[in-house]
Amino acid sequence: MDAFNIEAGKIAPFMAANIDTDVIMPKQFLKGIDRKGLDKGLFFDQRFLLSGEPNPEFVLNKPQWQGAKFLAVGPNFGCGSSREHAVWGLKQLGIRALIGTTFAGIFYDNCQRNGLLVIELDEKSMSELGDKVASGEINDIEIDLPNQNIKLPQNAKINFELDPMRKEALMQGLDAIGSTLQRAEAIKSFEKKHLLDNPWLA
Amino acid sequence: MHKPRTLYEKLINSHTVCELDNKGHVLLYIDRQVLNEYTSPQAFSGLRDANRKLWRPNTSLAVVDHVNSTEPQRVSVGPEEGGALQVNYFAKNCEDFGIELFDILDSRQGIEHVVAPEQGFILPGMSVAAGDSHTTTYGALGAFGFGIGTSEIEHLLATQTLIYKKLKTMRVTVNGALGLSITSKDVVMELIRKIGAAGATGYAIEFCGSTIEAMSVEARMTICNMAVEAGARGAYMAPDDVVYNYLKDKPRAPKGELWEQALNKWQALYTDKDAVFDKEVTIDAASIEPMITWGTSPDQASVISGVVPNPRDDIDLAKRKSTTRALQYMGLQAGIPIKGISITHAFIGSCTNARIEDLRQVAEVVKGKKIAQGVRGMIVPGSSEVRAQAQVEGLADIFIDAGFEWRQSGCSMCLAMNDDVLSPGDRCASSTNRNFEGRQGAGVRTHLMSPAMVAAAAIKGHLCDVRDLGIN
Ligand code: SF4
After folding, report:
1. Which residues contact B49 (CB under 8 A, 6 or more apart)?
2. For the whole model, what pTM was predicted?
3. Order of strands across the sheet with B203-208?
4. Which domains does chain B have, with CATH numbers?
5. ipTM of the complex, rounded to two decimals
6. Interfacial B residues in 90-109 facing A (CB < 8 Å)
C-alpha cells in the first residue's frame, strides 16, 4: 500500500449527494480477475459520451480540473455495492484523497486499505470548501496528514480528525495482514476457547 | 451486576480477540464467510502472491451467483467472456484452497444471501462477513453479518479476523398489524424514506416490535437485507422460536445433542432491559402503505398514491439538485401521479425478494391473469432450491401461463452483470434493492417495490396499487 504523508495538488468539486459505487465503477468493469485497467471505468457513464469521446461537461474533463489529485465530494459518497473496484479505479486515475461530510462504511474501509485518504469535515466547513472549489477560488491545496490539516491559499488552514490507528497505517503504508498475523497466538487461543464454548461452530 | 447490554454489544464482545486501541477498534473473530466469483478473485491472487494459506477453510462457502446466465437451460459457464474467466478462476481457487463450492450446475446454487440461510450455514449468534454489502441479511437469524471489500476478504481468509470499529446502535421499533397486501419490503422502504440513504451510516440497527415478531424469517430477511440502503453496516433481530423452527431441519444446522446445546446458548441473545441505544426510531405498522421509488436513490420513495415530487418543494439546495437530476434521469415530470406511469419491464428477483414466500405472493396476484401487452416480465428465483420448490407447488405454471419468463437462479437484473441487461429508456418495476443510475443497464429507469406490487404493475402495464386489483 502507498504511504500518505504530505501531498499537494489540484482539487475538483464532485458535490452531488449519494454517489454510489455503481456510478463510480459501472458493472462492465467488474469482470476481471485482477485490478488492472480500472482507471478507464471510473465514472464511465458520466465521463464519456455514447460515442466514446470524453464528455466535456464532466468535471474531471474540464481544463481547470484535469489531473486533480483530490475530490471534494457530497454526503454519503461511496454508498451501495461493496465493490473495491471503485477505490482501485480512483487510485489508478491518480486520486489520493477524498474530502466530504459522510462516507459509506464499506467504501471508507476500502479506501483505508488502499492508502486513499478519506477526510471527514463538518457540514459547515465542507460546504464552504465545496463552494470555493466549485467557483475556482480554490484550485490547489496541500494535505498534511502528520499534522492533520489541509492548507489552502493565503495561509488558510482546515484541521481534520482521524483515528490515530488509521493515521498510523496510512502514514506507514502498512500491510494489515502482516500486522494481524503477528497476533496469531492470540487468535489461536481465542479460537480454541470459542469453539469449545460453541462446539456447533467447529 | 453487569451494565445492561444491547444484543449488538453481546455479539461483538463475544467475538473480540483483543482491543486494538481506546477508540473502539477491535480484532474481531469471524465465524463464517460466503464468497462469490466477482469480489473474491483479487483476494485469492493476493494470498497466492504472498504465499499465504487460509486460516480455516471449512468456514467458507463459495457460491456462483453474480455473473451466471439465468437462461432456463442451464450451462456450466455463461456466454460471456469476463464472466467465464471469473467462474473458472473461482473454481480453481476453491479447489486449490480447499473451499466448498456451489457451482452453476449445483442444485443448491443461488444468490449467496438466499442460499446460506436456506442451507443452515448461518446460525444465531454467529459473526459473518462477506464481499457483498447485503450480508446484513443474516441479522434476521440473530447472526451479525456485514459486507466487506476485497482487501478485507483477503485479510479474513488469511487470519479469520477483521480489524473492526464498533458502530453506534440504533433501535427501530415497529408495532402493530400491517394492512392487507403490505409486506416487510414496504416496512423497510418506509424506514429508508424516513431516515434517508445515510440515516443509519455508522450504525448497527436492531429491529424489534410486535410487527417484526409476527413476521416469517423470510420477511425479516427482506428488512435486514435492505437496511444497508439506509447506510447500516449491520442489521439484526433477536432470534426467537420462529427462527429456531426455520433452522431446525436445515441441512447444516446442528443436530441432536449439539442442537439442544446451541438452542440453550441462543436464549441469551437479546438486548437487556434498560440497555441504551444511541438512537431510537419508531414506526407505526398501521400507517404503512405500499411503497415505491420515483428517483435514483432508495430514499427517493413515496406511497403509491403519491405524486412525483417537485424539486422546488425541497428547501435544502443539495436536495433540490438531486431531485432535479433524478427526475431528469427517470424521465418523470414533477406533480404527475405515480400510479399510471407506464412500464416496459417487470422483474421479480434478488436477495431482497425472491424467496419462496415472495413467489407465492406473486402467484396470488397473477393467477389466471395475463401480463400487459408490451411488458416483458421475468421471474428469477433466489436459489435453485426455491425454483424447484416453486415448481412442486405449481407456481411456475401460474407464472408461465401469465406470460412471465421463468428463469434459473442468480442475481440477474438486480445488477445486470450477466447477460440480463436492459436498454436505455426502459422502465422496470423491480422487486430489487437499488434504483441507482445504470443499475439495470445504462439509462434504464428502475422503480423499487414489493414483489406483489411488481406483479400488479406487470398485469396493468403501469405502476399501480396491488390492492386495486381486488386480491387479498
Ligand atoms: S441479488 Fe442483487 S443485491 Fe443481492 S447479492 Fe445479488 S447483486 Fe447483490
Report:
1. none
2. 0.96
3. B235-236, B203-208, B168-175, B279-284
4. 7-165+241-261 (3.30.499.10), 168-239+272-287 (3.40.1060.10), 291-469 (3.30.499.10)
5. 0.94
6. none
